[in-house]
Amino acid sequence: MAKQGVDVAVALVLVAFAAFPAVHSIGVCNGVLGNDLPAPSDVVKLYQSKGINAMRIYEPEGNVLNALSGTGIAVLMDVGKALPSLASSSSAAAAWVKANVSSFPGVSFRYIAVGNEVIDSAGQKTILPAMRNVQAALVAAGLGGSVKVSTSVRFDVVKDTSPPSNGVFADTSFMGPILEFLASTGAPLLVNVYPYFAYEKDPKNIQLNFATFVPGSTTVNDNGLTYTNLFDAMVDSIYTALAKAGRPGVKVVISESGWPSDEGFGATAQNARAYNQGLINHVGNGTPKRPGPLETYIFAMFNENKKDGEKSEKHFGLFNPDMSPAYSITF
């Protein structure tokens, strides 16, 4: 996760989580940047006890994958630090898939994220070659139909997002070939979407209620569509950009979204609860432009005391490291 340049001066409102089929689930990101976090087996039990049926992990970790085996919890797994080697060598990709995917037949892998918020130009050039190599390795392993390969991008790959109908990809030379790959394989585009950072950047023009799914927010009308929350407006700007890029059929999965509960502007337990509960309640309905379940991963399961960056980065957790709730939340 990183701060996103968001030029959205639109809205956000109340949202409620209807349980949807396993393929369209609310997931929660399981970060491990803390020195006081529970054991993977206990983490998985907590997911199960809360009815959370999808998990994002940020690199292959054998103890986590072993704990997930046989649970049916769907997994979005990042390649982590392996990105450069996966891009440079098809044999390295084959070895990576064998070690981290094929060796865990009891794990319900759904997506492999090749890169997370890669913003430097050198790193971006490695994404597509790595995606191709990992995809080929999965196909060779007989997993090409069940596991999709994508990359997780920051929201600011889209610009001119207010109103949503203006959305367009900022760099088509980067995104165009990636979208072509996704269209050819049927994989979704993974996008990290944070109304929190939009609100933090521009609280004069973005009302807190808009950004935290609180009823009674200002309504925004755009080409016949009505927006009552900022999350929908941000996501629909992505759909607009996909259509303008000639790839309207590429699906979107929200690979991160959340709100901190401490040590940041607007970062309170009350606001975090309002946003995350609203997100849970809302995404089963989709957006004005694209109704229907929107697969979304909340960031994050736990507060992580070793996270870098702003102090608020340590406080995105739904739960404390002792597995007590950071605030009341219902799945």
Helix content: 25-40%
CATH architecture of the domain at 27-53 and 108-113 and 152-319: Alpha-Beta Barrel
The number of helical elements comes to 10
What is the class of the domain at 27-53 and 108-113 and 152-319 in the CATH system?
Alpha Beta
First-last Cα distance: 23 Å
The number of E-state strands comes to: 12
Note poorly predicted spans.
2-24
Query: In one word, what is the shape?
Result: globular
Query: In CATH, what is the homologous superfamily of the domain at 27-53 and 108-113 and 152-319?
Result: Glycosidases
* Biggest sheet strand line-up: 1-2-3-4-5-8-11-12
Mean pLDDT, to the nearest integer, reads 92
Examine the coordinates and then state which fold CATH places here, giving the name of the CATH topology of the domain at 27-53 and 108-113 and 152-319. Answer: TIM Barrel
Proportion of residues in β-strands = 15-25%
Radius of gyration: 19 Å
Category from helices, strands and their pairing:
alpha/beta
Give the biggest beta sheet. 8 strands, parallel, barrel
Short description:
This protein has helices spanning 40-49, 62-68, 83-88, 90-102, 121-140, 172-185, 195-201, 208-211, 230-244, 269-282; strands at residues 26-29, 54-57, 74-78, 108-116, 148-154, 158-159, 168-169, 189-192, 220-222, 225-227, 252-257, 296-298. It has 331 residues and is an alpha/beta fold.
